């Protein structure tokens, strides 16, 4: 067994967050624990790392440099170290890059968790200058204590000398205080709501699994509004009662406000929040509280999976089908898979919650790999919305109008009745295409294989791949003809224009991620809509995610065909999930909802499945299609993206790689491509993609790293391997 502690002068191996990875150092005078977070010298710099094991270097001890600093934090536990190693191996990510995900607490190495604060000690000094009086006023305003000398001087607008003078005079004295405010404890003994029969059965199953200890995954499959959140909060209660920590992942920060409120109502205190938008001090505070086991529940974005939980008992992945759980740059991982991996290492339970599970999770529940809890009806009197298609071929559509007469009548009726309507169009901006009517030229991004999208609120064209913007041209950049540029097709902004014309008295709310500069602004807008401060809501896919708008009774899907185009094998699954989720926003209050789906192909099997409500039939059909093709989840896929600014050397390397496929053939894998990637150029880099398909049990990762590691790519070429790519 490895040593758990290294004494003064021992050789220790430190995994750094630098590309060099593991380096040997000398333990400091007070020794150092296995897993300790440390700062080490690397050349002239100081780098972060974690003590990973005994050092193995043959260098004489005096040549090894000593570890410099230890933050006041508990060592990383064996569980997290194992998880990082396994996650690195699974995603083919270098271990230092994985460690970086687990050390994103700024200021962790910046000194102790306590700080010297000043408080009132004696009477006011005899010589009470104006500056001194201001210092005392500031301190009194803070309740007489709690600020450091520097903070006090800054806030009072005086020099440090004035504050020191008060200390010397005995008016103020110094004491140590914890640096971070503690988290309030959540109380699991508070009574929850009375659960329905289905809910109670589900909660009992989850509670029993947590009480028994050990790893397991349960798919919590329930229609929108059936009480999935109530049920998994029971699992959180059980974990809290056992002194174990829970993590709830949400796909969208805008959803946290409502969730925090529900947790507070249930457990009497708010959970810790973790997301990359949080400030450094907040993240540091949460990180420490998690490491010490003081935070019983963390709600966060996918990066919360890498927090140093002391005793993780439960991970909930809410809306587990959501595409935002896949991290698409840097370290490529899927939060759902990583949740399962982390829990299996930690001996924790996983709850995957969704009304429209991913096909992967559905299949795993069917085969018994996951347990399943079903909630088949909405809570209380609320019923699932009535779903109907509007056949656009039979409607009289006006040019450059996207709302059919039938849908317009339905919207008018809701407004008349004082209810809300939501129009869903999964396209940001005003118009997806800007075209010259003289020559037919479409304005594209100069660095990407993508059209520029007109954003009228910004008065600019924007590339959705690289973010580049430019003014909307008056003159065609190709033929030079003036005044013939036209916006083609609808985006949410254009839809908003149409709605404003048709319903001039209605209050509109447009929800699109690009229209909000901060998460807080989006949260506030959503809360305002829920409170009834809008009549018509127009939104992109952010409206599909779990929001609760009680007065909303009508959902109109502007273009259901949008997601069904293209060759992606996941298109059907995605469209089904998205439209079902959006429709699920309707009728969550007392009145029954209606969802109207505009389409030119009402007979399409996916549209039929959405309208017919035979969810199980849909998944069964999808699953059998995938099984026949050996596609995920029945086979495994890896995407290999090669990119370079130079197309010729890119092709040469890709072809050479394709010919060197012996390691892949050895495991029976098939290689498709190289072919242009779904987006063939981004930020000036050409992109080719290969797909590798293997049997589920084949050792795909080791074959891939052998294969990709055998050829040395030219200097400007990047190779990224995406295990389990989300589009194929
Ligand atoms: P889901 O997560 O499945 O969409 P929620 O847990 O958000 O469903 O429940 C929908 C609504 O019904 C929420 O307002 C919730 O508070 C309420 N609700 C669900 N179950 C109960 C219950 N047993 N008692 C009281 N209210 C409930
Ligand atoms: Zn671009």
From TrEMBL:
Top EC category: isomerase
Domain Helicase ATP-binding: 209-375
Pfam families registered for this protein in UniProt: DEAD (PF00270), PriA_3primeBD (PF17764), PriA_C (PF18074), Zn_ribbon_PriA (PF18319)
Keywords assigned: ATP-binding, DNA replication, DNA-binding, Helicase, Hydrolase, Isomerase, Metal-binding, Nucleotide-binding, Primosome, Zinc
Top-level taxon in the UniProt lineage: Bacteria
Catalyzed chemical reaction(s): Couples ATP hydrolysis with the unwinding of duplex DNA by translocating in the 3'-5' direction; ATP + H2O = ADP + phosphate + H(+)
Coiled coil keyword on record: no
Positions bound to Zn(2+) 2: 445, 448, 463, 466
Known cofactor(s): Zn(2+)
Kinase found in the keyword field: no
Cofactor binding description: Binds 2 zinc ions per subunit.
Listed GO MF terms: 3'-5' DNA helicase activity; ATP binding; DNA binding; hydrolase activity; zinc ion binding
Subunit structure, as described in the record: Component of the replication restart primosome.
HAMAP family: PriA
Record's function text: Initiates the restart of stalled replication forks, which reloads the replicative helicase on sites other than the origin of replication. Recognizes and binds to abandoned replication forks and remodels them to uncover a helicase loading site. Promotes assembly of the primosome at these replication forks.
Protein name: Replication restart protein PriA
Species the sequence originates in: Rhodobaculum claviforme
Gene: priA
């Amino acid at each position: 067994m490895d040593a758990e502690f290294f004494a003064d002068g021992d050789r220790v191996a430190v995994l750094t967050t630098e590309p060099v990875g593991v380096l040997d150092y000398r333990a400091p005078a007070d020794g150092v624990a296995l897993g300790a977070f440390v700062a080490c010298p690397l050349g002239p710099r100081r780098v972060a790392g974690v003590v990973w094991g005994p050092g193995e270097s043959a260098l004489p001890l005096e040549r090894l440099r000593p570890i410099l600093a230890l933050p006041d934090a508990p060592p990383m536990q064996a569980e997290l170290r194992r998880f990082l190693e396994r996650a690195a191996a699974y995603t083919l990510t270098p271990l230092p890059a994985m460690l970086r995900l687990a050390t994103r607490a700024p200021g962790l190495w910046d000194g102790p968790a306590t700080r010297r604060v000043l408080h009132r000690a004696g009477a006011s000094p005899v010589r009470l200058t104006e500056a001194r009086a201001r210092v005392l006023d500031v301190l009194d305003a803070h309740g007489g204590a709690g600020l450091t000398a520097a903070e006090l001087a800054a806030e009072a607008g005086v020099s440090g000398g004035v504050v020191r003078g008060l200390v010397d005079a005995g008016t103020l004295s110094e004491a140590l205080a914890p640096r971070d405010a503690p988290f309030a404890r959540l109380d699991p003994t508070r009574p929850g709501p009375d659960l329905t029969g289905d809910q109670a059965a589900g909660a009992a199953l989850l509670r029993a699994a947590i009480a028994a200890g050990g790893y397991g995954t349960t798919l919590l499959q329930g229609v929108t509004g059936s009480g999935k959140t109530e049920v998994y909060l029971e699992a959180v209660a059980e974990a809290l009662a056992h002194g174990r920590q829970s993590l709830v992942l949400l796909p969208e920060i805008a959803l946290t406000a409502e969730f925090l409120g529900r947790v507070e109502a249930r457990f009497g205190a708010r959970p810790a929040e973790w997301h990359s938008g949080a400030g450094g001090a907040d993240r540091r505070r949460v990180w420490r509280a998690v490491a010490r086991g003081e935070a019983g529940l963390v709600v966060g974005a996918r990066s919360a999976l890498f927090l140093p939980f002391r005793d993780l008992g439960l991970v909930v992945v809410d809306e587990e089908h959501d595409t935002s759980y896949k991290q698409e740059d840097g370290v490529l991982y899927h939060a759902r898979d990583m949740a399962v991996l982390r829990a299996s290492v930690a001996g924790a339970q996983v709850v995957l919650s969704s009304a429209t599970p991913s096909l992967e999770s559905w299949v795993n529940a069917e085969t018994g790999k996951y347990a399943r809890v079903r909630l088949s009806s909405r809570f209380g009197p609320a019923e699932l919305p009535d779903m109907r298609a509007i056949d656009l071929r039979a409607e009289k559509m006006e040019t450059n109008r996207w709302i059919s007469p039938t849908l317009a009548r339905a919207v008018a009726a809701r407004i008349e009745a004082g209810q809300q309507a939501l129009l869903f169009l999964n396209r940001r901006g005003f118009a997806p295409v800007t075209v010259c009517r003289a020559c037919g030229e479409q304005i594209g991004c100069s660095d990407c294989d993508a059209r520029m999208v007109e954003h009228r609120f910004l008065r600019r064209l924007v590339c959705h791949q690289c973010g580049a913007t430019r003014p909307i041209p008056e003159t065609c950049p190709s033929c030079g003809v003036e005044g013939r540029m036209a916006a083609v097709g609808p985006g949410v902004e254009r839809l908003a224009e149409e709605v404003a014309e048709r319903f001039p008295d209605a209050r509109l709310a447009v929800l699109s991620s690009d229209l909000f500069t901060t998460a807080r602004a989006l949260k506030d807008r959503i809360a305002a809509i829920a409170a009834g401060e809008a009549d018509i809501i127009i939104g992109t896919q952010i409206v599909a995610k779990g929001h609760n708008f009680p007065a909303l009774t009508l959902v109109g899907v502007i273009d259901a065909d949008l997601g069904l185009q293209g060759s992606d094998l996941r298109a059907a699954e995605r469209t089904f999930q998205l439209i079902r989720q959006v429709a699920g926003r309707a009728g969550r209050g007392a009145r029954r909802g209606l969802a109207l789906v505009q389409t030119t192909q009402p007979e399409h099997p996916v549209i039929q499945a959405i309208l017919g409500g035979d969810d199980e039939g849909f998944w069964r059909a999808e699953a059998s299609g995938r099984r026949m093709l050996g596609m995920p989840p029945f086979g495994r896929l890896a995407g290999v993206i090669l990119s370079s600014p130079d197309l010729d050397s890119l092709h040469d390397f890709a072809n050479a790689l394709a010919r060197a496929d012996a390691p892949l053939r050895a495991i029976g894998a098939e290689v498709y491509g190289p072919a242009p990637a779904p987006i063939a150029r981004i930020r000036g880099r050409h992109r080719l993609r290969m797909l590798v398909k293997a049997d589920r049990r084949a050792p795909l990762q080791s074959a891939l790293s052998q294969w990709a590691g055998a050829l040395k790519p030219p200097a400007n070429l990047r190779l990224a391997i995406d295990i389990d790519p989300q589009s194929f």
